[in-house]
Amino acid sequence: MVGPIGGPKHLIHSNVDWGQDLLFLRRWLKEHPEASPLKLAYCGYFDPKHAGIEYTAPSNIEAPKLGNKSQAEIPPGWYAISVNFIRGFPFFIYNGDGTKSNLPQNALACFQHLKPVATAGYSIYIYHVRGNPPGGTRKSTSRVPP
Length: 146
Prior knowledge:
By secondary structure, the chain is of the alpha+beta class. The chain has helices spanning about 5, 20-30, 85, and strands at about 40, 75-80, 90-95, 100-105, 120, 125-130. The protein is built from three helices and six strands; from the N terminus they run ααββαββββ.
């Protein structure tokens, strides 16, 4: 499958995501005020705060153990991740305070194993990661079926 939905499985960078869906994200956030606070990893040259989006950069995501890609620990919360980062593309991200940070290759690739609850356009995937289950550790709750 290709096209705007299947394309990110085969193409990355400016072939599918050049930051074009930021305003769709802003609209989605206005329609879903429960999606706050937001952790945003946006692939583009325009700081999302200038579009009126309040966010912080994702942090404290523990890499999965060797051979267990789907078991990364992601802190609970709402995430909006550009498809380039989901597919492992290294780039910079805005931090929400006007500064930038480098995002290494595959830093957010663990989101490939989650099913987004929504998309903003075709290039920003929105996830809601729930908290700790009783007696367990934080894991994503919306998994892509095998």
